[in-house]
Amino acid sequence: MASISQYLAELDKQRDRLAANLTAMGVSAASDEKLNTLVPKVLQIPQSGGTAPSKAVVYSAENRDGIYLKYRDAVYSLDEFTAENNAFCSADNEYALNYSISIFGWDTQVYTCCTRSISIESSMQIAMRFIAGSAESGIMRLVQSESSNPADIITAAQTEDNYIDLSLQWIYSDDYVTTLTPCENVTASNYYLVWVGRTNNSRPLIKSIEIYH
Questions:
Q1: What are 63-101's pLDDT values in tens digits?
Q2: 3-state secondary structure of 160
Q3: Is 33 helix (H, G, I), strand (E, B) or coil?
Q4: d(CA 197, CA 104)
Q5: DSSP code for 145
Q6: Whole-angstrom distance, CA of residue 137 vs CA of residue 154
Q7: pLDDT band at 47 (very low <50, low <70, confident <90, very high)
Q8: CATH number, span 54-212
Q9: Domain coordinates of the chain in residue numbers?
Q10: Sorting pLDDT into bands at 50, 70 and 90, what band is 48?
Q11: Nearest Cα to 141, choosing from 189, 201, 181?
Q12: Which stretches within 43-175 are classed as H helix?
């Protein structure tokens, strides 16, 4: 298991890379800026002379369809789960996904998926906006499945050699931050996205997940 210093070193590496990429695209950026300052600058990339960046919304307050989660060996749609556990996702928290200890108990790994297949290329990046209670590496995976059944997708995401691991880092913050996870080295194809909310000290509150080309 990686140490906190290793997590922080990886965050510094990703921050430097993001700053360099922004600069290459004509946006003023410095490696000593914070991630939550650098990430929104992606939208400042000049679009003249080219096509506008495309975006696929996996989850947001306005796009909640196709989200399923596994809890205690059962798979629930978002509507089914919130019917019994309203605190997980409601108007009270602006429809963020709340992986709270009070809902799931201590240190539960809640596998969550989107059943809408998304075309992924190696040049794409996944933007996740969240609040987390601690800094640590998380779990985000791409799954190829002939079935759009959420149970099949989540099972594949838990079965070795049936998924592609992506680099997800939770960042401690008392306000929303956005991180970018690159899809580099991913073979272009259609995938289902799976992520894990862990109810340990990180206990993330996820506001949105979007994929940018």
A1: 999 999 999 999 999 999 999 999 999 999 999 999 999
A2: coil
A3: coil
A4: 10
A5: -
A6: 19
A7: low
A8: 2.60.120.260
A9: 1-51, 54-212
A10: low
A11: 181
A12: 78-84, 101-104, 150-157
